[in-house]
Amino acid sequence: MVSIKTTCCIAGGGPAGMMLGFLLARAGVSVVVLEKHADFLRDFRGDTVHPSTLEMMSELGVLNEFLELPHSEVRQLSLQIGDDRVVIGHFDHLPVHCKFIALMPQWDFLNFIADHAKRYQTFDLRMQAEATDLIEENGRVVGLHAKTPDGGIEIRADLIVGCDGRHSTIRVKAGLKSDDYGAPMDVMWFRLSRKPGDPDETFGHIEGGRMMVMLNRNEYWQSAYVIPKGSADEVKRAGLDKFRTTIGEMSPFTRDRLEEIEGWDTVMLLTVAVDRLRRWYRSGLLCIGDAAHAMSPIGGVGINLAVQDAVAAANILAEPLRRQTVTIETLKDVQKRREFPTRFTQRLQIVLQNNVIGPALRGERPKAPFFMKVLQWPLFRRIPGRVLALGVRPEHIRTPDLAPRTHKAA
Question: Among 131, 199, 312, 341, which residue has the fewest nearby CB atoms (within 10 Å)?
Fold first, then answer.
């Protein structure tokens, strides 16, 4: 077995793991990031890069380069709830460089962060390396075991960070307990081509018994058919023709291309969960991102909360990690910093689930709740856009750029 010693080992190369690894390495902390897949090419993941994350790119001095990647821009989000049409976010008033949400494949986002991180000698990304267990000594986590195509590796580190998603192995092995807040829906994701004459706007549509969201990705629509929790097998038993017909009824302009849904293998099921760890840390270990709090897809905020977790964690941890002075109180400070934004956002998602999505999926006639109508009034209409775009406690890059560089990554 190969044995490695580093300062920080991050399990999971998603948005939280890659951003934390990049910021710590940039600040002079030796970091190993483990990603269990061979690449980042997995479709239908969180592809909404909000203004809060784009502002961090500006603070890092890479915004212009980042925006050269293929993306589309959403400057307003609206939702049709029965007969009510409500704007759930417009962004032209925000005090940021980018007054839009960038829709970008998550693999492009992750490859971009990885390429910049690799320019630092302190950064070590290991693909096809999956964390499988923790190493503990005297009640403290001191490392982890991982499997790779070439065999097992043992990594000893001053700090292990779990960023391995909502099905986190790290949090299970650490024995960290979570509270499950439930979700009334699951999501079936698929693609449809986008043609001249199609609407420009990214939008959602809720009717009694069903819901659709369509994200404008320039050349195609990334489409989400929202179904009652646990009903995917029932939808499939009804047949692909029935599924196509339903999509055409929800979005009539797509009827000329529904044969592009060739089979169920072109439809990906996202099992929605909303949960949160009671405690995000143990001695020698911390969880952030989806490993600490699984988010509903409502608002597409998951990737941006994960990135903000990473920025806050880097701000708090970089200096103690360099000095080898990380304590349980240091880790507690990360949770204290990020727990309120997480609770607030999850609470909003649960309110929308319980008052809009759940009743609609049960077949009740949907209508916009009174509070959503109030937020359309001129006095209040800036509020939802600001909360959606920036969150309730936006993080900013505080870590320095200290580490020696290798060479410019390809």
Answer: 199
